[in-house]
Amino acid sequence: MSAKCISCVKPVRPRQQGLLCDGCLRWQHRTCGTGISLTDYRTAVQNGDSIDWRCETCMSESIIPVAESTPVLFADSDINNSADNESTIYEAVADPPVINDHSVNEPDLPADPAALNESSILDPPAAVTFQILQDSTMKGRPKLVDSRGHCYNVKRRRPNATDWQCTIRRKLNPCRAAVIQRSDGTFHPGVHSHNHTSDVGAAISATITAKVKAKTVEDIFKPASAIVEEVLLEELTDAPCPALSKPEYIARAANRLRQKLRPKDPTTLDFEIEDDHIPDGFFVSDVKVRERRHIMFHA
Predict the structure, then answer these.
(1) Is 157 helix (H, G, I), strand (E, B) or coil?
(2) Are 192 and 176 in contact (CB under 8 A)?
């Protein structure tokens, strides 16, 4: 954001609370006479909502119907005190031509007025919730997922808080959205909003990945592809989940986790056999002859 302010002609920087005019698409500082309070601005940023705002130039150039502007431009006292103003008002607000009201209103309004549902307009937007999923990334690290489908990873851990940053970190236009997790378990979104769309089904995708890795560690002899298929049948619903990776990619990540848990290759003949990593009934015997060692398994 390097554009200049409409009012003070100074650059509008990222942390200076800039507002974009919906008419001319130019920027202006919030404190330069926009009429938007700090409380309304912070509420919109935290909820990810847009602010419908126009600059003074666009407001003056916009065409407002006379019938809508009359209650603002004229007061009741002015109408009662001046007969000239009264005639002027009635001349300005002319009677509209007679139109069949049924043909205009019936397609928009239901027959029963009680059928009008205003809950979607009056109810406040739902609060954003957060959920931490352990071992849900491909590298086995925790991931924070919000109810809107945005994902975060750990940026920094402090004594009393943990800073989470958005996982979309492009080189040219990285997302600066962040969340602060306090020591009491509460989450506080940062001042920056996301500059990209959310991933539908991000929470389900992270849950499936974490559950596959947990089962892979519990049963190291079961094929990873079978574990992935089992978890998908348990967690997936009829809802679309485009954020989910391909099953073969999830199985590949599980196999990489198993490789890290395997014992290291021996460098000498004096090594111990760990029975936990050998299937039951597969090991036969361990024979040492002179300077050689023979380990036999069932074919």
Answers:
(1) strand
(2) yes
Q: How far apart are CA 111 and CA 240, in angstroms?
A: 36
Could you say which DSSP state residue 245 is in? P
**Residue range 66-113, pLDDT digits in tens:** 334 333 333 344 434 444 444 344 444 445 555 454 444 444 545 554
59: nearest Cα among 33, 89, 40: 33
Place of tokens 């306090």: 182
Residue 175 DSSP one-character state: -
3-state helix, strand, coil in the chain (%, to 5): 35, 15, 50
Other C-beta atoms lying within 10 Å of the C-beta of residue 243: 17
253, 252, 278: which is closest to 263 by C-alpha? 278
Contact 138, 253 (CB under 8 A): yes
Under 8 Å between Cβ of 217 and 257:
yes
Q: How many residues does the chain have?
A: 299
**Stretch (H or E) spanning 281:** none
What residue type is assigned to position 220 of the chain?
I
Residue 137: the pLDDT is 73
Query: What does the alpha-carbon distance between residue 264 and residue 150 come to, in Å, rounded to a whole number?
Result: 38
E strands in the chain: 18-20, 27-29, 130-133, 143-146, 151-157, 161-166, 178-182, 187-189, 283-289, 292-297
Amino acid at residue number 180: I
pTM above threshold 0.85: no
Tell me if residue 111 falls in helix, strand or coil.
Answer: coil
Q: What is the pLDDT of residue 2?
A: 64
